């Protein structure tokens, strides 16, 4: 016990948790796919459909990820991580602003893609403060002004005396003596010269498709200024030290900076990037001889300048762009960042419990901008009013390839391998589109596809789902669009986990934001597919569209149901995270008793919530950590063995009603049958 000597109030830490174990979240999903914009090769946490659009844009013709994200949140999901897939051919649109000495700023779209070609910028000078002044008679770096209001340190000013004009940086403002201290003596203006001094900043207007979407004013050319352009308009994970190249002309890789940013911000949310970002092109900005931008065109408003050079690079996509790779130890930082893309970006995110890659099944279609608009029939009885200004059509990029079954299998096999390696997540596999398009041969195609997998860390779903297409109002589009079911399934899993628990099978709940299925399986075909372990989505009269299956792709009866696998993964991970404190503790009966107590308390809580089956706690689980399984020889090696056994609850798949006659009338009895007795 600590002995206090100084009178007063002293605080001591009293942790009442006692090292207990808490159940972990299992509702968080990770998605990989194609989007309109967004940082490629970086896992971004998203907690709403609007936040997803802020990062990745609205739905596109040649991508399913935006549809899957909306389906996830519409069905009860609360948090997901999204990774944008892009090829090496993707490029970022931008333009360069110059001063009298050459290139000064590079303004780029915040992420690669043809979407940046729809952006246009208008940069105008702002001269918000001006006053009369006189150059000091002795020190040409001091200017005496009539009024110092509006002037601040680290601001760019223009000093004009007749035809002589010189720009300078304000190093300090002496308000008491109404004096501006410049960063360097004036070279063109003599002592005692009468001047007109004006501040110079810039306003940046950003237009998307002809509509004003952002306005940034008061941007400064001076790095020390609080409104320095490259500091104000930068990626959220970009630090002041990385806003321009260092002396060797190198920068820290963007992917590594973003990875660190999202690791820190994952619990408090991530700030979406601005529409455009600014980079300083001068390795050593001339702090004492800065010149105004000459490519702006003076203080008068000019026409917006379009950004050029953006490309999606979708035609160059390959399966490896969806898979990526984890760099081996010893790989340099830039090479590791280049290898990390697609599914590999989810390796570093520990909280993910569900994984889906819907866009490997992409079915390319012509962009809505290339379709003829519907015929407009004018009613002559209605007064004609001036039409409202409509935004310019979005630029049309290239189309992705239609991946063959071999590439689809490679990506889904990588998903399974990823989940088996992490052991804390489940792969949600979408059946190929062709297998869900024609009922005549769909069962054979689905049976063949299911036979490719044997794992307890994945589940396969069919058919696809028809949803209301948000792009229907932008061209001659159908009202609905078929998308893979993984987004809806992930949202349903998340909602059930949050409402009841991970031990409840994610099935037999009406799906939201869905109109129909691409195929209508009958009872016979459904029975064949369910026996194979394929989860069928069906539209039931009066009950909506529901997932009627909760099986994993495993022939082992102990791991037949996905809720059993996910419950065991949660238990394993929760125990692993929560008992790390025991490493290097004394290997004696006290430590073993503490571990037995916390593990038993955790499992008893799960049993009380129905996650474990048994009429008593002794039937539901056991924890063994004593001298029987920790002999002296093991303790001498520094080992501690804990044996934990649980009886996970399994769902009913079949409920049988038996109706018959007895001596006095009819009798009805019911029995429920599960496919396995325990796990």
From TrEMBL:
Domain Tail sheath protein subtilisin-like: 412-551
Gene3D superfamilies: 3.40.50.11780
Domain of life of the organism encoding this protein: Bacteria
UniProt source species: Aromatoleum buckelii
Domain annotation Tail sheath protein C-terminal: ranges: 554-659
Pfam family, one: Phage_sheath_1
Signal sequence range: none
Family: Belongs to the myoviridae tail sheath protein family.
This protein's name: Tail sheath protein C-terminal domain-containing protein
């Amino acid at each position: 016990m600590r002995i206090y000597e100084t009178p007063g109030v002293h605080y001591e830490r009293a942790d009442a948790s006692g090292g207990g174990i808490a159940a972990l979240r299992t509702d968080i999903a990770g998605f990989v796919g194609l989007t309109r914009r967004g940082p490629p090769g970086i896992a971004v946490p998203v907690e709403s459909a609007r936040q997803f659009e802020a990062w990745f844009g609205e739905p596109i013709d040649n991508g399913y990820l935006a549809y899957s994200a909306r389906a996830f949140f519409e069905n009860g999901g609360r948090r997901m991580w999204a990774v944008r897939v892009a090829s090496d051919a993707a490029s970022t649109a931008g333009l360069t602003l110059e001063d009298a000495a050459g290139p000064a700023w590079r303004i780029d779209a915040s992420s690669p893609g043809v979407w940046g070609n729809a952006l246009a910028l208008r940069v105008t000078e702002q001269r918000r403060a001006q006053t009369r002044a006189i150059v000091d008679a002795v020190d040409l770096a001091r200017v005496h002004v009539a009024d110092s209001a509006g002037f601040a340190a680290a601001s760019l000013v223009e000093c004009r005396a007749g035809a002589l004009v010189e720009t300078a940086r304000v190093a300090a403002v002496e308000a008491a003596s109404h004096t501006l201290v410049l960063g360097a003596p004036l070279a063109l203006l003599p002592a005692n010269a009468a001047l007109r001094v004006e501040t110079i900043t810039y306003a940046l207007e950003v237009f998307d498709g002809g509509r004003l979407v952002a306005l940034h004013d008061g941007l400064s050319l001076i790095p020390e200024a609080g409104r320095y352009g490259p500091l104000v308009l930068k990626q959220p994970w970009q630090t002041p030290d990385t806003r321009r190249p260092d002396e060797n002309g190198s920068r820290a890789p963007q992917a590594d900076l973003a990875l660190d940013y999202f690791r820190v911000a994952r619990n408090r949310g991530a700030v979406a990037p601005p529409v455009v970002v600014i980079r300083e092109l001068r390795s050593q900005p001339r702090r004492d001889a800065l010149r105004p931008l000459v490519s702006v065109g003076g203080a008068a408003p000019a026409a917006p300048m379009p950004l050029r050079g953006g490309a999606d690079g979708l035609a160059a996509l390959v399966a490896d762009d969806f898979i990526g790779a984890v760099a081996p130890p010893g790989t340099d930082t830039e090479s590791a960042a280049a290898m990390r893309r697609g599914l590999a970006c989810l390796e570093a995110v520990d909280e993910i419990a569900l994984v889906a890659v819907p866009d490997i099944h992409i079915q390319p279609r012509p962009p809505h901008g290339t379709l003829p608009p519907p015929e407009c029939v004018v009613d002559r009885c209605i007064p004609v009013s001036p039409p409202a200004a409509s935004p310019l059509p979005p630029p049309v990029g290239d189309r992705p390839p239609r991946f063959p079954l071999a590439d689809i299998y490679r990506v889904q096999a990588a998903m399974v391998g990823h989940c088996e390696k992490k052991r804390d997540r489940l792969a949600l596999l979408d059946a190929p589109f062709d297998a869900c398009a024609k009922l005549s041969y769909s069962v054979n195609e689905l049976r063949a596809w299911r036979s490719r997998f044997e794992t307890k860390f994945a589940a396969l779903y069919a058919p696809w789902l028809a949803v209301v297409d948000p792009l229907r109002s932008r061209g001659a589009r159908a009202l609905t669009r078929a998308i893979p079911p993984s987004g809806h399934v992930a949202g349903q899993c998340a909602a059930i986990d949050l409402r009841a628990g991970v031990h409840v099978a994610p099935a037999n709940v009406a799906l939201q934001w869905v109109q129909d299925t691409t195929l209508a399986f009958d009872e016979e075909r459904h029975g064949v597919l369910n026996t194979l372990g394929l989860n069928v989505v069906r539209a039931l009269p009066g009950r909506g569209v529901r997932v009627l299956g909760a099986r994993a792709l495993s022939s082992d009866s102990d791991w037949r149901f996905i809720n059993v696998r996910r419950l065991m993964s949660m238990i394993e991970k929760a125990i692993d995270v929560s008992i790390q404190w025991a490493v290097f503790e004394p290997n004696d009966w006290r430590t073993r008793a503490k571990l037995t107590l916390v593990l038993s308390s955790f499992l008893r809580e799960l049993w009380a919530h129905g996650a474990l089956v048994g009429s008593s706690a002794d039937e539901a689980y056991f924890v063994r950590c004593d001298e029987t399984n920790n002999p002296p020889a093991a303790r001498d090696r520094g080992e501690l063995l804990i044996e934990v056994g649980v009886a996970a609850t399994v769902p009913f798949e079949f409920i049988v009603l038996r109706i018959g006659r007895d001596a006095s009338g009819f009798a009805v009895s019911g029995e429920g049958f599960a496919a396995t007795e325990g796990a």
